[in-house]
Amino acid sequence: MEKHTTSAKVLLNHATILYLHTGNLVNRSRLKKKCPSSPSEEDLPDTIDCSIPQATEAITPEEREELKVSVKLFICEADLSSIKDAVDKSCQALAVSQLDSVIIAPPVLPEGESQTLENLQPAWTELEGLVQSHKIAAIGTSDLDKELLEQLYNWAQVKPSSNQVNLASCCVMPPDLTAFAKEFDIQLLTHNDPKELITAASFQEAVQESTQDLKVADWRLEWVLRYSIIVKSRGIIKAKGYLVHSKRNNL
C-alpha cells in the first residue's frame, strides 16, 4: 500500500493533467483500477490516464444504429475549451464519431446569483459549433425555468431539444414550462443530480487519500461527464460510466 501511495505521489507531482474513466458501471464486478503502475517503469507522463479499458465496451459500427449515446456534462470551470475536450474524449472512449445527445450543466453560480441568458450563451455557442461539425446530434439544458428556456430558445441558432428538471425542488412540472415545451417540441426530463456532481473539495479529498501529503490544492476539477448507452428497441441501459478531467495550476 505504501509503495502505491508513493508511486501515485511521484506521478501526480510531475503531471499537469489527470484523466479518469470509470469504465462501464453496469459491469461493476469486472472493474479493476488501471493506472500507471510505477514511475520507475516508464518516463513520468504529463498526463495521467486512469481508465478501465477491460470494462469499457467500445461500440462497433454494426451496432451503432441500435444504440443511443447520451451525455450530461457538468462544467466546473469557465474555460469553454473544456466542452470540446469532454466531447472529444467521450467519443474516443466509446469509439463513436458522434454523441446523440448532450445536456449541459453550467458551472455553479456564487450564492445569491441567478442563472441568466448571458451566462448560458458562451457555452451554448460552443455546443452549437459541435452540432454543426457533427460531433453532437442534439443539445439540451438543465434546470431552466420557462422564462429562461424561452429566452435561450429565441436566441439560439440550434434550439434546445430537451430540458432537465430537478424534481427535488419541484414536485410537479410547472404548467407554464410544460406548455412551452409542448408547443416547441422540447422534451422535459427529470433528474435528481445535486448542483455539483462532485465538489472541488471532495475531489481534492479523494486525491489526498491516495497521495497523503501531496499539495492537492494545486489540482482543480475542470469537468465531469456522465454517459449512458441505451438499446433503443429494448429501452435498457447497455453501459453507463463517468469521465473526470482535472488540471494542475501552473507552478
Give the terminus-to-terminus CA distance.
Answer: 29 Å
SSE pattern, N- to C-terminal = HEEEHEHEHEHEHEE
User: Biggest sheet, strands in spatial order?
Assistant: 2-1-9-8-3-4-5-6-7
Task: Round the Cα radius of gyration to an integer and report it.
Answer: 19 Å
Overall morphology: globular
Mean pLDDT: 84
What's the helix count? 6
Biggest sheet architecture: 9 strands, mixed
**Proportion of beta-strand residues:** 25-35%
Number of E-state strands: 9
Structural class assignment: alpha/beta
Unreliable stretches, pLDDT < 50, 5 or more residues? 30-41
Helical amount among residues, as a percent range?
25-40%
GO molecular function: enzyme regulator activity; glutamate-cysteine ligase catalytic subunit binding
InterPro entries: Gclm, NAD(P)_OxRdtase_dom_sf, NADP_OxRdtase_dom
Subunit structure: Heterodimer of a catalytic heavy chain and a regulatory light chain.
Protein name: Glutamate--cysteine ligase regulatory subunit
